[in-house]
Amino acid sequence: MGYTSSIGLYVPDWTKLNWYSLIIGISLALFAFVTLFIDLAPYSKFGNRKFDTIPSKKAMICFYLPSVIACLFVQKPVFFYWHSHFDIVHLLNTLHFSKRVFEVCFVHIYKSNTNILTMLSVSSVYTTTTLLDLLVTRQMPDYAFSDKLFTCGLLFFFIGEAVNTYHHWVLRQMRMNNNSQEKYRLPRGGLFDYVVAPHYMGEQLSFIGFILTSQNVVALALKAFPLVYLSIRAKKTHAWYKAYLTDKHEKADIRKRKNLIPFVCPCERCKDLGKECVEALVKATMKAKGLSESAYNAHNLQDQVKQLEMEVQHIEAEMKRLSNRSNNKLVPMGQHSIYSNNPEENIYLGKDSNMLLSFHREDVNCQAPHFTARIATRSFERKKTSDPDETLLAKTLFIDPRSTVHELVDAFFKCDIVYNSLVHESSFRAKLSILQDPLLDLTTLSICCYVCTTPCNDVAHSWRRKRHLADFFYVKAKSVFLDQFDDYEKRLENMVSVCLLSRYIHMTLRFSDCCRLLEMAFQISLDLHKDYNAYFESETDKEVTGHVDEALFSRCYYLIVNMRRVMQFIANESMNEPEFRYPRWQYLVDESEETRRYVRLQNWILSIVDHPFMSAFKKQIHRVHIGKVCTLSFESIVKADQVIQEWASSAPDEFRLFDDYFAVEACKEIICKIQDPILLVNFCNLHVLQLNINSSMLQPIALNNESSQLAQCVLEHSLSRSLTGCRLLIYAIKQLFHACGCNTTCNYTVLAFDNLLYTFDMLMLLSLSPNQQVAAEAKSMMKICFEEIKNIRFMQGISIPKETSPMASIITEQFKDKKFDVDYYDKYPHPWFAMMFDAIHVITSCT
C-alpha cells in the first residue's frame, strides 16, 4: 500500500515496474552529472563533426515524435471532462512533446548535423522516461493528489511553455535565412539579454510542472535527468559562446549573462571581480526614466567624458610637476663631477658650437642594420592572430590543476631573477593557499604563462606541452585582465600581469597585442604613480622597506616603460612619453640575497638611465635608430663618453670588475674566472649601453669644413669602441652560458641569448663598414655567434631548411616589399627563437 511522504510526494508500492523506473531515473540523473567532464551529445551547435551526417531537423523529429507515440500508447488524450488527475498529467505530456514536434517542423531553423548514435540515445531517453512516468502515475489513487501542488504544477508548466515558445521564436527571427553563411551571433531580445539559454530555463519550468502534477518520487527521479542535463548544457553553451564569438562587444556581453536564471547570481565578470552586479539596476533605471538603451548610453557617455577631461587636466599638472623634480637623490656622484652637470646645458643641437655633426644610417646592403628590429617590424604585417580555443586547451590540464600550478609557481621563484622580483613571494604564496580556483587569479595565470614560455629545466614537460599550457594560461589571463583592467583596486596586479605576459606575447610574435597591452599598462602606471608619489619623494634614500606595493610598483614601472620604448623602436615610432624620473628600487625585508643584489644592481643602472644629460642624449640618437637624422655637437659626444666612463668607475664595490672596461686582454683574464652571473650581466649591460651610443655614430656627416676632420675622428673612435665591445660581449656571454650550467637560475640563459642577439645585431652593422679589416673581423665574429647559438640547449631542436625558410627571400630582397610569412614559425614551441635562429643562419650563410 502506497503512502504520501512528508514532502508531499506519493511513495507507491515497490513493484518491479516502480523499482526499475526509480533505478533508471537515478542512473540517468547521475549520468547527467558525468556530462560535466565529457563532451555533450553532439547536436545543435555542438554537432557538425565530420562523421555527423544526419540533418538536425530529422534527428530532432526522432527525438520527440516517439514520446508523442508513447503518450498515445498509454491512453487517448482527454481534452475536456477529465475523470482523474492522471488525465490532466497525460494531456500535459502529450501537449509538451507535440509542441516540440511542431516547433521542429515549423519554427526552428537548423544548420548542423548529428549522428545516428546521438539520435537514438536521446530519443530513447525521452521516450523511456515519459512512458515510465505515465505508467507509474496511472497507478496512483486519485485521492493521493494534492490540489495545491497540482495547481502550482500547472502554473509552472504553462509559464515554462510560454517562456520556451517565445524564445524559440526569437531564435527563429535571428536565423530567418536558412542559407545564410554568417558567423553565429549572440541572440538578443527577451531574457536573452540576461541569460544564455532562457529556452532551457522554460523547458526546466515545464519539467518542474510535470513533477508537481505527477506528485510521486519515481516521477521526481525520472524528471531529474532533463533538469540536470539542461543546466549543464546551458553552462557549456556559455563556454561555447565565449570560445567561438568573434565580435568584441559580444564577447564582453556574454560575460555579463548568467547561464539560466537572471537577476539571482552575479554575472561572471562581477563574480570574478567580487563586485555587486548592477546590470539589473541599470535596466531598472532606464525603465524608470523612460530612456531607450541608446539614449541612456549617450547620457552616461557625456558624464564619463566630463570625468575624463578632469582626469586629463590632473595628469597634465602631475606630469609638469614630475618633469621639474630634482634627480639629485638618484645620482650617487659628487656635485662637481661631469656626471652631475646641469641637465639644462644647451649643447645637444650646438647653438653655440662650430663643431656640429649629423648622424644617420642607410641600408646599403641586404643585411639591414638592427635586423632583429627590422624582422620584428615585419611581424606587425601578420594577419590578426586569434586566441587559442580555451575549451580545447582546458583538456591539456589535469582535472585538478593545482599540482601543475604549484609546480610552475615553484619554478618561477627558483629559476627566475628578473621577473620574480615583481611578485612578493610570501604574500603571493599566502594568497595562493586560500584560492578556491587558482585559474581565476590573474597573477597566478600570468606566472604560469611566463614559466611555460621560458626554457626552464625545472618544469617536467616537453617543449610542445609547455607551449600548449602557455597558450591556455594566456587565454585565461587575458580574459581576466580585460575584465578587471579598469578596476581601481587591481591596478598594480594588472601592471605585474602585463610584465609577465609580455614574455609570452614576444615569444609568440604577437607584437600588435604587446603594444596594446603595454599602452594600457603604461596608462595604469601613470595613474597609480599619483598614489605613491609622496612615498617616493620621502623614502628614496632607504634601501629596505616594508611597503610591498610601492616596492613592486617601482620595478614594474621601470620594466613597462622600457618595454614600451622597445615596441616604439620596433614600430619605427619616436619616443612619446612625458618627462619623468624612475623611482629608486628598494628591497623587502624577507627577500633573498640574490634579489637584494639584483635590486642594488638595478639602482646603479638607474643612475645612468635616469641621468638628465644621458636621457636627452639618448633621445637624440634614437632618431638614428628609427632612420632619421640627429645633430649633435662634438662637445656633447665627448661629454657622453666621459659620463659613461665616470659611471663605470663609480660602480659599487660588489659589482666593480675592472678599472678599464675596454682593456681586452685584462678583461678576458678576469672574465674567465667569474662564476657569478650577476657580475657577468653587469659587464654586458655596460657594453650594451656604450654600443648603443657608438653604433649610432658610424655614419657621421660633417656640416661644415671645420668639422670634417672631427667626423673622421668620431667614426674611428666609434668603430674601435664598437668592435672592442662586441669582442668582450661574446667572451662574457660564453662565460655566462658556462656559469648558467653551474647555476640553478635558468633566466640567466635567456638574458645571455638576448645579449647574443644584440651583439649579432651590432656585428651586422660593423660588417657594412668601408673599413675592410673591421668588416672582415665582424663577419668572423658573426659566425662565432651563430656557433654559440647552435649550442644553446633550447635552440638545438630547431631545424629550418633554407629551401622552405621565409627568411631567405626577405633578406635577399633587402627587407623590401616581399611578403613575410611570420605564421610559418608558429609551429615551433618558441616562435621567436625559431625565427631568430632562421635569420642568423641565413645571414651567416650569405657572408
Automatic annotation (TrEMBL):
Coiled-coil residue windows: 291-325
Organism of derivation: Rhizopus stolonifer
Protein's GO biological process: lipid metabolic process
Entry keyword annotation includes Transmembrane helix: yes
Membrane-spanning residues: 20-40, 61-82, 116-137, 149-169
Localization: Membrane
Domain called 3-oxo-5-alpha-steroid 4-dehydrogenase C-terminal: residue spans: 143-264
Pfam family, one: Steroid_dh
Keywords assigned: Coiled coil, Membrane, Transmembrane, Transmembrane helix
Annotated InterPro entries: 3-oxo-5_a-steroid_4-DH_C (IPR001104), SRD5A/TECR (IPR039357)
Similarity annotation: Belongs to the steroid 5-alpha reductase family.
GO CC term (a single one): membrane
Official protein name in the record: 3-oxo-5-alpha-steroid 4-dehydrogenase C-terminal domain-containing protein
GO molecular function, one term: oxidoreductase activity, acting on the CH-CH group of donors
Gene3D superfamilies: 1.20.120.1630
Membrane-related topology note: Multi-pass membrane protein
